[in-house]
Design goal:
By secondary structure, the protein is α/β, with parallel strands linked by helices. It has a single domain, classed as Glutaredoxin. It has a seven-stranded mixed β-sheet with strand order 2-1-5-4-3-6-7.
Amino acid sequence: MNEQSNGVFPQLTASNLEGRQFNLPGDFEGEINLLFIAFVREQQDIVDRWVNEAKTLANSHPKLCYYELPTICKVNVVYRKFINGGIRTEIQDLKARESTITLYLDKMDFRSSLEIPDEETIYVMLVDRKGSVLWRTEGKFTEEKLEELNKALSQ
């Protein structure tokens, strides 16, 4: 899956943990954006490892921004506030809260649009503001995946 370069991030509206609303993918702030799509709480350690690398990459690639996208099924506003509040209390860092955009949506449609076969692991995608997927991988961070990502960033 590492070599795929197709697909488009779907248009949707969501808010970050600070309450800012985004119309995605157009409101992603980078010319290119590294997305960490996770489906269950137990995947957070995998996301955290990737985010550590993303911080370093963003320092050397000024056009790059990164976002954590916890992906949850549609729920009503009360549950959204409860879930976001729980996530927010776990994240002390303002930058991390600003770059965490919780997606409440039909997960099957979302996964289908991005050709994500299951929710067993996280998916990492490099996208532009139009939503074009420029690079993608899945699962735990490895040096090999970082090398592939760096190649994609250099193009």
